[in-house]
Specification:
Helix 3 crosses helix 4 and helix 6 packs parallel to helix 7. The chain starts with a strand and ends with a strand. Strands 3, 4, 5, 6, 7, 14 and 15 form a 7-stranded mixed β-sheet that branches. A 6-stranded parallel β-sheet has the order 10-9-8-11-12-13, sandwiched between helices. Strands 1-2 form a two-stranded antiparallel ribbon. It is globular, with a radius of gyration of 20 Å. Strand 11, helix 7 and strand 12 form a beta-alpha-beta unit. It has 10 helices and 15 strands. By secondary structure, it is an alpha/beta fold.
Amino acid sequence: MKALRLAAPGGLDQLQLVDLPAAPTPGPGEIQVRVHASSLNYHDLLVVTLPNAAADGRIPMADGAGVVTAVGAGVQEFAVGDHVVSTFFPQWLAGRHMPTDFQQVPGDGVDGFARESVNLPATAFTHAPKGWTHAEAATLTTAGLTAWRALVVDGRIQAGDTVLVLGTGGVSIFALQLAKHMGARVIATTSSAAKAERLRALGADVVINYREQPDWGDAVLAASGGRGADIVVEVGGPGTLPQSIRACAAGGHIALIGVLTGFAGDVPTTEMMRKQVTLQGLIVGSREMQQDMVRALECFDWRPVIDRSYPLEQTAQAFAHQQSGQHFGKICLTL
């Protein structure tokens, strides 16, 4: 079977297409999945490009969607032919005892889904939403579940809330779509006039150009009649967090997700305290959360926005496209 390996010390030029032996018969409690799609996340980009971020020979990609081709003894949840999608934390099935590292995350601490076939415990997957393509399902493992947890599990979104999303990456676009279909008003930021039109077409009620309005937190307050955003999907990190706090409503919730602008920075603690804002970090979610999300998505008539798909052989080009920042929504791989 075809697979992609990352040679040390990493870098896009160290992604190597290889031919591996076919997956063996799955063992007890395992299922075998023919992987048909994956999707790119910022986490995957860091694993691939940061020096020695992964073990030599690691198979990258945290997201995987495909079809069950065999089941091991004792497996009752899945049958041959089922469409499935992987989970980000295979060992976090439910509850509050969540992982705090990436040692078991596919494509990081263990081999991921840049391969045609894989045997894993059945609990490392959930069913995919009925009627979704493999590429659409592959967007759920990381970006989709992150947006779901930010809005629904932690943010406790209600119809009539105002939600602020930053930029046009996979998490932000998924959060926009989800929030609109749950009755929220959405404010979005971008630096591109063309992307602003696409955001409006997806339902964004207000779009703010953060280059033209560097104090965009004040612009959010103005656009919401001084109230601010009830939920902020904060994907930027230290470079955007002060403005997100400014934009947040009193008693609002900020879901701290991304590190696009760095890994540390100053926090305006006085304003946070004055507004009594909840700032909660999160890394994706549990299998139970994913199962809840899939059930909900089957009630909606929209699909994730896929910017472009690349074959496995062009994974380096796919990451280069991601690095360019020109994408709108998700970038996928097809296998």
